[in-house]
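Usage example:
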Amino acid sequence: MYRYDEFDSQLVNERVEQFRRQVDRRLAGELSEDQFKPLRLMNGLYLQLHAYMLRINIPYGSLSSHQLRTLAHVARTYDRGYGHFTTRQNIQYNWIQLQQVPDALADLAAAEMHGIQSSGNCIRNVTADQYAGVAADELTDPRIYCEIIRQWSTLHPEFSFLPRKFKIAVTAAPTDRAAVQVHDIGLRMHRNAAGDPGFEVIVGGGQGRTPFIGKIIRDWLAPSDLLSYLEAILRVYNQDGRRDNLYKSRIKILVHQIGAEEFSRRVDAEWQAIRDSALQLPQAEIERIRRYFAGPEFAELADEPDLLRQQADADPQFAAWLKANKADHKMPGYAIANISLKSLNAPPGDMTARQMDAVADLADQYSFGEIRVNHRQNLVLPSVPQRDLNALYQRLAEQQLATANIGHTSDIVACPGLDYCSLANARSIPIAQEIHQRFENMDRLHDIGEVTINISGCMNACGHHHVGNIGILGVDKRGEEYYQFTLGGSSGTDAALGERTGRGFPAAETAPAVERVLRTYLDIRAADERFLDTYRRVGMAPFKEALYGAA
Amino acid sequence: MALLKDGRPQADEYTDVSAAADPAARGPVLVSLTQWREHRAALLARDERLGLRLQSDEKPASVSDDLQHFDLVALEFPTFRDGRAYSSARLLRERYGYAGELRAVGDVLLEQLHFMHRVGFNSFELDTDDAAREWQIAASDISVWYQPTGDGRRTAVENRHGLADAAPRRQAAVR
Amino acid sequence: MPKIVIANTLADGFVAFLRTDGTWSRDIVEGALATTDAEAEALLAEATQAAHENRVLDPYLIEVAANAAGNLRPIEYREYIRAFGPSVAIPA
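Running the assembly step on the lines above writes:
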């Protein structure tokens, strides 16, 4: 994991003191709210329905156990004892007081964490594959480049007042776990014909009101050219992106309007002028950062299929957990353990301070002190010896963190919605909880198999409903909460935006509608077909009929 | 409005005629791009310093060949959210070699002077009673910089690896 | 329709309701009630002044009505949630 050097530390410490001063000036009335709002947003501080909300970056989703304990400390000391992990690998605190924010930020800075640019019209947290560094299919650890981009984008003086927010994601595996096709810039590492690793550059993906799949504007970019090329893209966007309409300001609109070819041409024209500048990454800096991601000292272990089968046979719940929550690790004898934050009746993605401390301890004991945050509001212990999985499972179960539902029906992504968010039109969390209750039975859950359900409480789509296999969008219809469905979305390598089914459902009918969709799938699926496969084979018609009755 | 130039409150020697129907005035004048194009010969014939005020959608490329005529270029922030001037500033300084006074005008957000200085602005029109204090706050806030901007500040990468002057410096020092 | 003023206090960000004496309460039952347009305007003006004085943020009027038990509740669900908190249990 990356560790701050003196320069990184000095920057975050100075930033904390800068914000402390800005808060003091605001409280003293020297800065108006209009003057203060952009400053607090660029430190991740929103004003929401009930209180201020503080969003803290978790760079490319990687946390040390010490950092997780610090997040628990902040929850306990400055909030109501819990935090919420987001779809962009960040954490949010819902009850932070403005006057305490500088102290909370100081505590976080000491643990090499901050909320810089987690909001505002600037470059946000750079996200990555949550299995980076341990996935068998990866070319190299994408977090090396995420860290490089993180530094380049932090307090970038030219790009702090973009037309709109800007999100970058990086993957280095053929299986895209970072959703690079639905980001403003997606970077996919791969080898060119000569065998050299480099980046495919995808621009203009995104969700929200006008979702788009991104366009490839460059097939292969050398790593040393990464920052100059990104700078060229951002400069074109900063200059040419629309500023007349808040809902048309993302780069996806620009790319769509002028076309990928013209956009690529503009970027190239700018890039030619700056590619040989100081933005050329010195190899020494790439290597310096690469060393931090060399990975822990893995022991020489053997795979343990017999032991795991034995343990699974003895405990059906552990068997279910292995099936859903364990993923393959690149090293023999190890496994990736997903931690579900989707237990029955708990808001999706929420975690108490006590649970955070428990997972920090488990990370120290079983996973080299490392934790990851994924894109579905869950956590990951990236490197657990297979022979320790059962013990880990028992300890997770004690904390209600062992629901065996990763990637299954009740692993629902739900934005905070109208229960918390001032932008929302409808609630998301109660819908998620009701769906979870209906699919509590593990046998039924596992029979249905892989299906992603995503719920957003407004068109801003923070619940990423456009890329859910079943997407649900909450709307306000004459003062009532209604829920519209999309089907067939996918965020992976085969990225696709869901298709609308038709009219929405009132809240009480929404979970039953989900049941009808899944029952239809069970009725018509062919062998080994996931929900998404069946949908792609048969199309919307049978599901529409199940939802609304025969036409 | 106060003018902060080179770190100090100063009197503005220019008359801003950019919004006036007739750009005639005594002394140094600040004209719009339209006025520059319409009255170019007349303006050049005056033996006075000339300033050009660009709106946020007017690109520096369109005047890159004329920069030698201007002692002042003012870039507008119609609202502080319109960040196009940050790119324009860098292009003027780093691409086109402009070395005169580069002024931020309009909705210049306090607490953003540091970013503006980094991209090449060396004067600011501020809505404040204490411009000197605002500058003092802004100038010393953050002392670590990740990105080369041609402003002469050594980046973290340069410091880490003892690289000498990896970032191209502007032709003239930013006074 | 009766109205009260809702806002967030600046320093802590929590929801607050304007009392008749110009102070702010966390409890909706203490909110000053405006029953005419003129009263509502006056309340809002007072709240706006409090915002200018950097004590509160975003004050605005909300419609309230008495529920079956005779207690005043916001008409709009969004404001109801602001007044009484999330509809889901808070973890921990």
